[in-house]
Specification:
Number of strands: 5
Largest sheet: 5 strands, parallel
Order of helices and strands: EHEHEHEHEH
Mean pLDDT: 90
Helix content: 40-55%
Radius of gyration: 14 Å
CATH topology: Rossmann fold
Strand content: 15-25%
Distance between the termini: 7 Å
CATH architecture: 3-Layer(aba) Sandwich
Low-confidence stretches: none
Strand order of the largest sheet: 2-1-3-4-5
Length: 131
Amino acid sequence: MKKINLACIIEDDPVHQLLTQNYVKLTGMVDNLMLCKNGMEAYNLLKSLITAGETVPELILLDLNMPIWDGWQFLEEFIKIPVDQKITIFILTSSINEDDFRKAEMFDLTSNYLIKPIKLEKLKSVLSELF
């Protein structure tokens, strides 16, 4: 099983941030982790890494409902940045709204739509299938 060098959690809620961070670590599949509290912070950080030719996350776990920039705003801007490395994005949200599922289809992320709180076994399963 391949390990993920770098993953990014984009989440504003400290409880879900901590829970997700701990579960990611417990999978044993991720070496390094970066945390961002909203979509704008994540966009600015990732854009600067890409522009500088630095390593970018192979995996992004993205919340949808956040202040400043929500997950949709992040996605709309992030997909405009040309990236050479493969980045897998998972929406990790509490939203079960059908509109969000349909919007996820626009970004080809319906199969990467996870409802939180995520369970450790589900996260392990998803990561082992991809990486």
